[in-house]
Recover the amino acids of this structure.
């Protein structure tokens, strides 16, 4: 069946973002971070604000988590927790440079007064390594491991959130989080770069998502898969023109944003945006 654009339906989402007011590359904990490359904080703020305004213009609600001194990576808000149906499964970061971010995110959820917060016992980095598809097989969590999140955390998330978690092994250090190798395009389908995953995980993804959009290495290296989609509008890195063309052909509407400064820390659109699922 040929899918035309009008068949793609957007759904209003709620997001959490943190401004890059303290952003810098002061250490290297992924292959993209170069401490010798200066960061233009003013430009980073402008790019971040444009991303926030883009999401709002598309009809979505954006909450803002204040930046904190000494936590330059807080701008990557997706890593602070993973939420499903009013429950927030908290993060426990692998590297000590980011450990305190977890408490800032926990405080946000507790201050809202409507979330059930689950304190993790094993290392996991929130939506960096978890994706949720509510319409896939009755509600499914895709969970990455190999570089940051420990595989045992997947079963803990499954128990806390009451949704089956499918473990996927990442094998290429350039794609150190699931969200730079795979993205939910809507509530039931995904895009991903097969080369980021082990052979077994590739077979699992092919079986579960036969209609997935397959990205190539160039798409992935342009941080194209580090995207945010509402089911119709797909907000992604401006460099990912190849993936944008594939999305258009598949009936989605790509919305390109420039995040060159934030890419210096190893992240793009999705890294900066946590989805809140009350």
């Amino acid at each position: 069946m040929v899918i035309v654009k009008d068949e793609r339906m957007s759904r209003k989402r709620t997001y959490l973002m943190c401004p890059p007011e303290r952003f810098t590359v002061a250490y290297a904990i992924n292959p993209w971070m170069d401490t010798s490359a200066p960061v233009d904080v003013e430009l980073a703020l402008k790019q971040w604000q444009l991303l926030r305004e883009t999401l709002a213009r598309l009809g979505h609600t954006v909450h803002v988590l204040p930046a904190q001194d000494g936590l330059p990576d807080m701008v990557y808000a997706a890593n602070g927790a993973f939420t499903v149906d009013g429950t927030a499964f908290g993060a426990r970061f692998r590297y000590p440079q980011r450990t305190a971010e977890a408490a800032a995110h926990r405080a946000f959820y507790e201050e809202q007064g409507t979330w059930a917060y689950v304190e993790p016992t094993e290392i996991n980095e929130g939506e960096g390594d978890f994706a949720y598809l509510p319409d896939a097989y009755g509600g499914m969590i895709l969970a990455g491991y190999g570089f940051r999140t420990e595989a045992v955390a997947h079963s803990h998330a499954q128990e806390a959130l009451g949704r089956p978690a499918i473990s996927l092994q990442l094998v290429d250090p350039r794609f150190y989080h699931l969200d730079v190798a795979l993205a939910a395009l809507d509530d039931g389908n995904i895009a991903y770069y097969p080369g980021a995953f082990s052979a077994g995980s590739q077979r699992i993804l092919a079986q579960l998502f036969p209609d997935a959009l397959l990205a190539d290495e160039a798409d992935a290296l342009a941080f194209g898969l580090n995207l945010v989609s509402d089911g119709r509008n797909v907000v992604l890195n401006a460099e990912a023109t190849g993936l944008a063309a594939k999305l258009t052909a598949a009936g989605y509407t790509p919305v390109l944003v420039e995040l060159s400064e934030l890419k210096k820390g190893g992240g793009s659109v999705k890294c900066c945006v946590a989805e809140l699922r009350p």
